[in-house]
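Review box. Two proteins, two foldings.
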Amino acid sequence: MKTQTTSIRTEILAGISSFLATFYIVIVNPSILSEAGMPFSAVVTATVLVSAFGSITMGIYAKNPFVIAPGMGLNAFFTYTAVKGLGLSYEAALGAVFWAGVLFLILSVLKARDKIVQAIPHTLRYAIAAGIGLFICFIGFQNAHFIIDDPVTLVKLGNLKDPICLTFLLGLAATAILVVKKIPGAMIIGIILTTLMAWPIGRWWGDASVINFGSSTLVNYNGLISMPDFSLFLKADLIGSLQYAFLPVIFVFAFTDLFDSISTFVGLAEASGFKDNDGNPRNLKKSLLVDSITTIFSGLIGSSSGTAYIESAVGIREGGKTGLTAITAGLLFLPFLFFSPLLSIVPSIATSIALVLVGSFMMMPLAKVDWKTLDEAIPAFLTMVLMPLTYSISTGIIFGFLSWTLLKLFSGKKHEINPVIIIINLLALVFLWI
């Protein structure tokens, strides 16, 4: 049975692939938000519900194969800046997430976000896609301990004799071969194969405690069932979060999520070809509405902001083209309301393989950049490299816009600078100094 030049089987396999590439958030998000004083089990429940709600809504309403889940970076800002740095209670921070979502919704209804996307120069669109690819590749290498921190050089190559690195490289090679040979479900097969190869780590050889929350074994079975915890439901302090001193927090949540979601939609559209007749991401308005509604839902249910996930590219690479991919991924989150202990079975090095390979796939739009025209090439380069180097998609976007505008202004091309780009630049400067 065919659906838009694809098949139900392909869409389901793609949805499984996207889920496997993103399910780590069910463990990582609670680990970060619990440091803000939130109950770990309650954040697990909230993370699952946000991921399921956002992804299923994206599939049904926007009909795009994009997974929605609590955003990385946004959860770190929630804990380490809003709560620990500025002194908000986690209830007030959840209220800030809610109001940021309301602001998103207003902007979406007024089509302001559409205009922002349409104003993004094509050169920056190509660079955004490539930058996201480099970013998720870097995350994958870090999660696999293939790249580690260094006090002198900041980063360096990990120990290739370490069983973790060795298993990762073997899994990466095997999965890459499957992808090159165009084996259906190559990513899923690679993740399963790597999980099996990782089982002996900590049992027969090696020690995974450095990357696996202190556990010496990399693949663990921690039980089957745990009941959902709804203690964070409707705990957001909607009134307290509107204090004047806390308004910058709402603004930063809104601005960061705005550019994270827009850059993700643009990047995935450029890398996959999911564009409308005007060259903009397919069903953009509906996708942005889903993103904003999911952020509102996040604040009410007990999590940091939900946003579109760059790891959706894994499912797209597997052939996902319709909303069925996102629906499948969303439904797969729901059992982990009860079976969250099973998530520990699949190790980070297995899902990291998908991130690295998808990162390479997302380099293709760079061929469209006019590298000989320096007022186009330099902003594209800065956009691309600053995402992984600053560990922030938004930072890459900000300096891409600022440099593009500056160079156009001083190269006699100020007619290319439209009012929306000027507003984006002003917001970017405010964001940098908050």
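Next protein.
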Amino acid sequence: MSLLSIAPDSVLARSGMADKRTRRWRFALINLVWSFWIIAVPLLSGTPLHDWLPATALGYALFLWFYLRAYSVPARATWRYVPALAALGFLLAPLNWGAMVYIIYACVFAAFAFRSTRAGVLVMVLTVAAFMAEAQWLLHWAWPNTLSVTFWALAVGGMNLMYRAKGISDARLRMSHDEVRRLGASAERERIGRDLHDLLGHTLSLVALKSELAARLVESDAAAAGREMREVERVARAALAEVRAAVSGLRAPQLMAELASARLLLETAGVHVDNRIIATSLPGAQDAALAMVLREAATNVLRHAQATRVVIHLEQDAARVRLCIGDDGRGGIAREGNGLAGMRERLTVLGGALSIDAPTGCGTRLCAELPLQRSAHPTNAIPDGAQRRAGIQQVLPQVPLDPRLRGDDEGSELFDGIPDDVLPGSGR
């Protein structure tokens, strides 16, 4: 591995700052600013340059190597650079007491170098204890100087331990979120399979029987065969209408489900969500449209807004419903992208409108308004078995349903009056 290559599980990669090449090392380079104390301390104390500068320059070159490697190597190798940085501080402290910064950097990486938090804390304590022993027994530093280094080393190391714990917690939360989505999708596929089986099983069985019957009747009774085929056509058209009604709602999202998903997504990223929606009773089309608006708005807040707080509010009366999502981010939407355009088009189809107020630096407020047009036959409803059988009987009022197709054990009167030699399966 080269110096500038970043391992997938390195400290830099886990910090979330290695996702773009242009920002790859920015995070690590910013944290180098604290190393200025290595030079500032002896300069401010008036120590002659020849007493500390050569050793400090050589030590700083080694420090940069250890520092960059500790950020970029795989997690299992990070621990090697903790004692290396600490040793550098111990060796240079007699010449330049600004080398205490190396002890702090050692504690910083100790927070990420070990699987166990206890191991990280133990290494920090041992490092600081060794430094205190050197400072007091060998170098005879003043206690305030020694205690200040001890405090900052443990404080910074402790903050990094909490940062690491939060990262692990967020990763687990995201995994749980993904698992819930996966299980939900799996359950939805199973439900769709059952519904389509219930929806089409009876109808296709009837179509098959009627078609076979018509084929047997075509030579002996062409008129009866024609009637059977016309009935097959009507049954097929009824089944097609049912399938269209069923599949139109298979992927329709629900507002309350999207609200829970958006809240989990944003709060995982550290954005507080003020939810002012308790429950909804919207028609299917309006509910699905607002759910998609909320999904896109939450994604935009996460990606672009740089917000810390989001307010989600729903207003509903007898004639209309209005969903508003406001954040305290940077605002200043220069142009609408595909997401906002898609929101607007989806609302326009239902007679609604989208309004956006995004002054620069003052956050963004997005409001989606829809008229409430309740339908007696919602398109996203999948009819149950009784509704489907009733629908078929409306199409074929003169033909009773075959009990065998319902799973009954009784005989069937579907083919009464037709000679046995032309019935499906007879003579076999």
